[in-house]
Write a structure and sequence with these properties.
The protein has 1322 residues and is mainly alpha-helical. It is built from 48 helices and 23 strands. The strands form 10 sheets. Strands 1-5-4 form a 3-stranded antiparallel sheet. The longest helix is centred in the first third of the chain and has 43 residues.
């Protein structure tokens, strides 16, 4: 028997690290994982830029306190030291993933060998108990007696891992095993052994009984029942609140077990609950009064098939649930046709993943709108949510099977019709590929198993099997049928990506397939674990609410704990094996003419091929798709070829409460879309764990909770157009062949040949672009078709700047005009007088009549009522007024809405579902004007009240015209040509993007795009565009003078920061002792507390040899020197993006609190027409709240704090007085060192001085004050430092303290005026 004396040998030090989730950041950074202490008020008010200003903190103070903490481990030390830590992380991650794979494949011996390897990683030792518990959880599944497990754990921790101590989770696993132990004799003595073991394990805990039983990912519901009812080891209040309602409330028999344990342990529990955040007295805990009627609140989850032992009393909840759904719907006030459809409808989730067969589906949107009684509507919504929860679960977990079944169905239907011909539809082809590919994949799996089970010495293993051993543990984890489907779907999705027309990059393809297979494995494991924990529950309909709540909490815990990712090489090798098999079997039939007989003949060619091609000067491995297959991808229905992870959701998304847990329910998403940026993850994790970004979470949750549906009327119009195959508005027509211009004569002038080549290149590019657009449009339309009549949601997350994007990329409201026109709000609201006005304004805005006053916009709509009616009732064969709108599909949708409203006696009574937009006036310039206090600039972007909206683009165009007139008067020929050609449209894009850092070259091409319609000669157009760009830039700078001073200041700050070095950097940072690695990213905190880390570092790729091609892939753990040029260019626009993102999230939160349906497309905010006035007030209030702080001063203060111990290398004139003094100091230092001092030596010298100055010893402090270093000299004479170029004659490099430039003066604009601006957003 294990004794407490042996087990409890050390302090709680190892135990408090239980389930630490800081594996991806350094040990130093892990200290931040506890909630940060708030900085004192004076310090934070100083950082806010005003020591006397007491403002409402939006999240900045708490978050910046975390990321500025002295013990936060940053990523700007030397590259060698950072990469050493990264290498350790990479090694640990690879061992973790192998351990996971071996455990799930039941290769326990190899798993234990990997566990030993993990133990040898010294820096990982303190977290090793988590890895051991992971192993132990799998081991107990096949472990025999209780004594056998005790012996195993004792031997492991004493002999193999002597520096590791058990923790509370170890004890929880052992208790779970004891409870699961099935005696072979059935004697009471065995029950006594179990009871004694449980008693011993509970006594061994040092954090209390409740902490041990808090692990809901270890204990099953049956475990809790046994502990409470059978063994009387715990009380009901000891059970985590989320599990408590599922435990049978039976009066336990008193025995000494509970008295012993509770008496000695419960006093030490401190109310620990399931995750450390809930307490036993949690107000959210369920009242367990048996007499109280429990009304189930429908929430997301679904139940797995259960084994009911009393079937006469309890029926599987899925069956009950679906009967309740059907019964509820039939009880509503519906017409006979609707009731008939409901009676014949299959309410099984697996059979209703998507609306593949429209004739057999129910239009839930139509049903909802047919109900007039509010009570009935609530019942309907509850029933629909009940049904959709099961469907969403099936959609996420079983959609690959659904796609396969659809392929099979189409194949068998075609076969029954005798229609297996050259014109096979896409699904028939996919089924054939799948059936031919599957045997090869199964064969590879068997070979992998043979390799894993082989006892052959490594030296005698064949080269092929040695390579196979690297991916074999992973390759056997997922069902081969699913892997085949995933591979096919991924390759179809990647068509024409990465700049490869009619193909894809090989590296991207193999990684995408490998990662998709990994994600499938994670989803399967989550479902298996969930089924295991809840397998013994006997459910009634009333209990379903509590089961769902418990399962939801369980899933959240498992996803939050998830930290293992497969290595990139493993993903690449798995992906390459699968793609190779697909290439071998995927054939398509093509027709041609026999050159001899002139007869039509048919043959098979590969659907995919791999080769190499040059792209932007680089040789890339590519996978090409045969043109005939591309043609089918452009034209056929593809609902069975879209991955479920890319689809909208049928239920409200999982709320964001943690940085890596939100959105989909069985697929992990992270808050930030960071591409291989461990630095961003470290900062994000720290502030999230400190509870500093709750406002960010709330804003995202509001966006995700808005229900939508597909606009069937618009869909029908688009479908009619689509099926013609002809071009229409932004939809390209079907193009089968590329028709190039005939070549000129061989002896033609070279300029004519050159023009012919350029024109053909344009034709080819247009052809490829149109095919890609049509393929993308096909995806959008097929997803829209699948969700006709459904209630859908869009889960969101953020890019690294904080801007929100839907997780479902193909079809959402951020898409093009067609996508937006296809979407309306699920909930309708009565227009009222205000809503009717705003609906008219909205149509005018969409049409392009958006620079007039609101009254004139309303009048524009009213004057066009006949056109509106004609457009709505005869969109394709009428006058087509709507087609001339700037955004025609959205305009048509609004025309239909207005026409329906005016069919009523009182249009204000109409129930509207149309989203109405309020757009900012060049939102980036609005933020710049507020930051710089530009009065004229603020006026031109509508921050100041005015009688009519200002048009900043027209204003800039007029400024440019005035400049050109002056130049023309002086004889400038280019100005004479251009002065009457300048319109608002010519300058609009450049003005819009200037604030976001568009370059001179980029702006030239923007203007050339407009001028090319005026000037036929391409060279002339380009030359004039270069000339005009300079004047546009100068006009913008003239108007927004303060804003451009800030833009310049931001650029200068980022330039200095990205070329700075930490004073405490080690000498390895210097490659040759004089040339350092620049490792410092530009990092700042948004007003809502989100830390922004610019990810621009020098790239590094790792070569991985696969059986398909040698590919180069990025290392997600590597930290390389920063790319200073991109850091500088990116900071000004990224800072502004972070502000408009903060404004959007603040507005979303405010609108959510007022009960509005809210959506956004960056700086365009949407809600119901009747709620526009409420939303408008919120937008203005939140903008003022954002800018009432001097954000530039606060940024400067944050930079000063974050980079206060940094230095920079600069150059000065060697003949200057300062240079001469530094030379003397260097000579003295060289004499002390015995060699010529380097820049690294000088930094070490200054670091020594700082340590002495900060010493508590007066003698040391005095010594530090007397020391003179090259850095102290420059600190004392910083104003005398006159920088020169490094290439200048007589220049000398020196080290100076990093000193950021003073912020530019701010103008007199008062942001409070914005509250009264009618056209701020309109």
């Amino acid at each position: 028997m294990l004794t407490k004396r042996r087990w409890v040998l050390s302090s709680l030090k190892s135990r408090v690290l239980c389930f630490s989730k800081d594996r991806f950041i350094s040990t130093k950074a892990s200290l931040l994982l506890n909630q940060a202490n708030n900085a004192d008020v004076a310090k934070m008010n100083h950082i806010n830029g005003n020591p006397n200003l007491n403002i409402r903190d939006l999240g900045f103070m708490k978050s910046s306190d975390v990321s500025l903490a002295p013990n936060f481990s940053q990523f700007d030390n030397s590259q060698s030291s950072v990469n050493l830590v990264s290498s350790h992380k990479r090694d640990v991650m690879q061992l973790w993933s192998l351990l996971e794979a071996c455990l799930h494949s039941n290769y326990m011996e190899r798993a234990f060998s990997i566990l030993k390897s993990l133990y040898t990683v010294q820096h990982h030792r303190s977290y090793f108990i988590d890895d051991y518990n992971f192993y132990l959880m799998k081991f107990v599944e096949n472990c025999g007696s209780i004594s056998e497990l005790q012996k195993k754990v004792k031997t492991d921790l004493q002999k193999h891992f002597p520096e590791t101590e058990y923790n509370d989770k170890t004890l929880a696993i052992m208790i779970h095993h004891a409870l699961s132990f099935k005696s072979s004799t059935g004697k009471s003595s065995d029950e006594g052994e179990i009871a004694n073991a449980i008693k011993t394990y509970f006594l061994m805990g040092n954090n209390g009984l409740r902490k041990i039983v808090s692990f809901v990912d270890v204990f099953t519901v049956e475990d809790y029942n046994k502990l409470y009812s059978k063994y009387n080891a715990i009380s009901l209040m000891d059970i985590p609140p989320v599990m408590r309602p599922l435990v049978k409330d039976e009066s336990p028999v008193n025995n000494d077990l509970v008295n012993t344990i509770i008496g000695s342990q419960r006093d030490n529990t401190h109310n620990l609950a399931s995750d450390g955040n809930e307490t036993a007295d949690d107000s959210s805990a369920v009242n367990m009064n048996a007499d109280q009627e429990v009304i189930p609140k429908l929430d997301f989850d679904a139940t797995v098939t259960t084994v009911d032992k009393d079937a006469s009393k309890l029926v599987a909840v899925d069956t009950i649930g679906m009967k309740v759904v059907r019964h509820t719907l039939l009880g509503l006030t519906l017409n006979e046709n609707q009731k008939k459809k409901i009676k014949s409808f299959h309410f099984e989730a697996d059979k209703n993943l998507l609306n593949i067969d429209e004739q057999k589906t129910i239009d839930f949107y139509e049903l909802s709108n047919s109900l007039t009684n509010e009570a009935e509507r609530e019942r309907f919504e509850d029933a629909l949510n009940e049904f959709n929860q099961d469907r969403q679960r099936a959609l996420e977990l079983r959609a690959t099977n659904a796609a396969k079944e659809r392929w099979k169905y189409d194949f068998e239907e075609a076969k029954a019709r005798g229609d297996i011909s050259i014109k096979k539809n896409l699904n028939v082809k996919l089924w054939e590929w799948y059936t031919k590919m599957l045997p090869y994949v199964k064969q590879e799996i068997e070979k992998c198993k043979e390799v894993m089970n082989s006892t052959e010495k490594k030296s005698t293993v064949s080269r092929q099997n040695r390579l196979r051993m690297e991916y074999a543990p992973y390759f056997t984890l997922v069902d081969p049928e699913k892997m085949c489907v995933i591979t096919i779907l991924e390759l179809l999705k990647l068509n024409s990506t990465g700049g490869i027309i009619e193909g894809m990059r090989t590296a991207r393809a193999v990684i995408a397939v490998g990662k998709a297979i990994e994600m499938e494995f994670r989803s399967e494991q989550l479902l298996k674990n969930e089924s295991h924990i809840f397998k013994e529950i006997k459910q009634s309909q009333n209990l379903k609410r509590f089961v769902r709540s418990a399962k939801s909490r369980f899933r959240s815990i498992k996803i939050e704990q998830s930290k293992i990712i497969w290595s990139q090489p493993a993903r690449a090798k798995i992906g390459s094996i699968m793609i190779s098999n697909l290439i071998n079997v995927a054939k398509i039939e093509v027709g041609g003419m026999d050159p001899v007989t002139k007869e039509k003949v048919y043959g098979e060619v590969p659907a995919f091929s791999h080769s190499y091609q040059y792209h932007n000067g680089l040789k890339l491995g590519v996978l090409k798709i045969h043109k005939s297959l591309v043609h089918q991808l452009n034209g056929e229905r593809m609902v069975a070829a879209v991955q479920p992870q890319l689809l909208p959701m049928l239920v409200a998304p999982r709320e964001w409460k943690n940085w890596k847990c939100g959105g989909y329910y069985y697929t992990q998403s992270t808050l930030i879309r960071s591409k291989d940026s461990p630095e961003q993850v470290a900062y994000l994790k720290a502030v999230s764990d400190a509870g500093a970004i709750d406002r960010v979470y709330h804003g995202l949750n509001v966006l995700g909770s808005t229900p939508w549906t597909v606009n069937r009327k618009i869909f029908n119009v688009i479908s009619e157009v689509w099926n013609t195959g002809k071009p229409f508005l932004d939809i390209p027509g079907i193009q089968n062949t590329l028709n190039l211009l005939p070549p000129p004569a061989k002896d033609a002038d070279p300029s004519i040949i050159r023009q012919w080549k350029l024109k053909n290149k344009d034709i080819a590019n247009k052809f490829s672009s149109n095919r890609s657009v049509r393929c993308d449009s096909n995806y959008k339309l097929e997803i829209a078709r699948a969700f006709l009549g459904e209630k859908i949601y869009f889960p969101h997350n953020l890019d690294f700047r904080g801007r929100a994007y839907p997780l479902s990329p193909h079809f959402n409201h951020l898409g093009n005009d067609m996508s937006r026109g296809l979407l309306i709000f699920w909930r309708g609201k009565q227009l009222g007088a205000s809503g009717l006005k705003w609906l008219k304004v909205h149509l005018s805005n969409l049409y392009g009549f958006d620079k007039a006053s609101l009254e004139d916009r309303v009048r524009f709509a009213e004057e066009n009522m006949e056109n509106i009616k004609d457009s709505a009732e005869n969109p394709l064969n009428g006058k087509g007024w709507w087609k001339s709108a700037d955004k025609p599909w959205q305009a048509l949708s609004t025309c239909i809405e207005l026409n329906e409203a005016f069919k009523l006696e009182n249009p204000e009574d109409f129930i509207s579902h149309q989203p109405v937009h309020q757009d900012g006036t060049c939102n980036g310039l609005q933020h710049y004007a507020a930051l710089g206090g530009d009065c004229e600039g603020a006026k031109q972007v509508n921050l100041k009240p005015s009688d009519k909206p200002m048009d900043v683009y027209k204003y800039v165009a007029n400024l440019v015209v005035e400049r050109l007139k002056k130049e023309a008067a002086g004889g400038d020929e280019k100005a004479k040509v251009l002065q009457d050609k300048i319109t608002r449209k010519v300058v609009k894009q450049t003005v819009m993007t200037n604030v976001y850092g568009v370059t001179y070259v980029g702006a030239t091409f923007q203007i050339d795009k407009q001028l090319s319609d005026v000037f036929e000669n391409r060279n002339q157009s380009l030359e004039l565009s270069k000339y005009l760009t300079r004047h546009v830039f100068m006009a913008i700078r003239e108007l927004f003078h303060g804003a451009h001073l800030i833009q310049d200041w931001l650029g200068e700050c980022s330039n200095k920061i990205s070329r700075s070095i930490r004073l405490d950097v080690n000498e390895k940072s210097f490659k040759n002792q004089n040339k350092p690695d620049f490792m410092s990213s530009v990092i700042w905190t948004t007003p809502l507390g989100l830390p922004i880390v610019q990810p621009y570092r020098e790239g590094s790729k790792k070569q991985v040899r696969t059986n398909l091609q040698t590919v180069f892939i990025s290392d997600p753990f590597s930290i390389n020197p920063v790319n200073a040029r991109r850091q500088k260019a990116g900071f000004p626009p990224n800072f502004i993006h972070s502000l408009d993102a903060s404004h959007m999230l603040l507005s979303a939160s405010a609108c959510g609190e007022k009960g509005l349906d809210f959506a956004s497309v960056h700086d365009s905010y949407w809600t119901h027409a009747c709620d526009i006035d409420i939303m408008n007030k919120a937008l203005r209030d939140q903008f003022v709240a954002l800018h009432e702080v001097d954000l530039i001063q606060r940024l400067k203060n944050e930079f000063d704090e974050r980079y206060k111990n940094y230095v920079q290398v600069t150059n000065i004139d060697r003949s200057s007085d300062l240079a001469k003094r530094i030379i003397q100091v260097r000579a003295q230092l060289s004499e002390e060192l015995g060699h010529s001092c380097t820049l690294a030596d000088e930094i070490q010298h200054e670091r020594t001085r700082q340590e002495l100055l900060n010493s508590d010893n007066p003698e040391d402090k005095k010594k530090g004050e007397e020391m003179v270093t090259s850095v102290s000299l420059t600190s004392d004479h910083i104003t005398a430092v006159k920088e020169v170029k490094a290439s200048a004659y007589g220049s000398m490099p020196i080290i100076i303290p990093l000193k950021l430039p003073p912020i530019p003066p701010k103008g007199n604009f008062d942001v409070q005026e914005t509250k009264e601006s009618l056209y701020f957003f309109s």
